[in-house]
Write a structure and sequence with these properties.
This protein has two domains: 95 residues, no CATH class; 96 residues. Helices cover 42% and strands 12% of the residues. It contains eight helices and six strands; from the N terminus they run αββαββααααααββ. Strands 1-2-3-4 form a four-stranded antiparallel sheet. A two-stranded antiparallel sheet has the order 5-6. α3 packs across α5.
């Protein structure tokens, strides 16, 4: 699904001609009940108002005509002026496919940042810019190969400011977490530093007492 197009469509306002409620922007299900030709779009505008007259009154009509439980909801395709009614088997139909505009916008923003940081990654060491490498390491949705490269560059950047964010991050890929931890270990060695085993603050590698928590090492 095209994220930019999805954001544009989800921002549009369309009303149901039966109840005047705003139509919900939904992702089309992978299956189609009917002629098998598909929905005609990957995004649909659906009236999910359970008090809508066409939805509330169609249950009895379906029962009388076809002998099974079903109803109708109003649907409008993107770019169309006139919609149609579609059969649904229950009140929950399409409620699980509502497009969350805020979530999609956040996903789009994350994608743009990943693209920008990836473009800046190889030049970040020469510029002494920790941000591209660190942000990619911490982005659980970013490309894995790019994140591995970012972990490697943390050592060349030689900036201890990356340690706390990495320690406080919850990784979902074990391999990236291990590589990031190896980078931290190498950074500490290169700078003659260690982490206090009690408070995790960074201190000199030869220290006998932590200057932060006062514990003897």
């Amino acid at each position: 699904m095209d994220i930019e197009r999805c954001i544009k469509l989800a921002s549009e306002e369309h009303s149901c001609p039966y109840c005047q409620e705003r139509l919900s922007c939904c992702e089309a299900p992978p299956f189609h009940i009917g002629d098998g030709l598909g929905w005609g779009s990957d995004i649909l505008f659906i009236c999910l108002n359970n008090n809508c007259s066409i939805f509330a009154k169609s249950w009895e009509q379906f029962e009388e005509r076809y002998g099974h439980r079903a109803s109708c909801r109003y649907m409008l395709l993107p770019g169309e002026d006139v919609g149609m009614t579609i059969m649904v088997g229950g009140a929950d139909a399409f409620t699980g496919s509502i497009i969350d505009l805020a979530a999609i916008s956040k996903q789009n923003e994350r994608h743009h940042k990943e693209t920008a940081y990836t473009e800046d990654l190889e030049g970040c060491v020469a510029k002494g810019n920790l941000t591209p490498a660190l942000c990619l390491v911490l982005d659980n949705s970013a490309d894995l190969a790019t994140r591995k490269r970012a972990c490697e560059l943390l050592i060349d950047l030689n900036n201890l400011d990356c340690i706390d964010p990495i320690r406080n991050h919850r990784f979902i890929h074990g391999e990236i977490e291990m590589q990031a931890n190896r980078a931290i270990k190498q950074l500490l060695q290169n700078n003659h530093r260690q982490e206090c085993p009690y408070c995790m603050e960074i201190i000199k590698s030869q220290a006998r007492m932590c200057k932060h928590c006062g514990k003897e090492l």
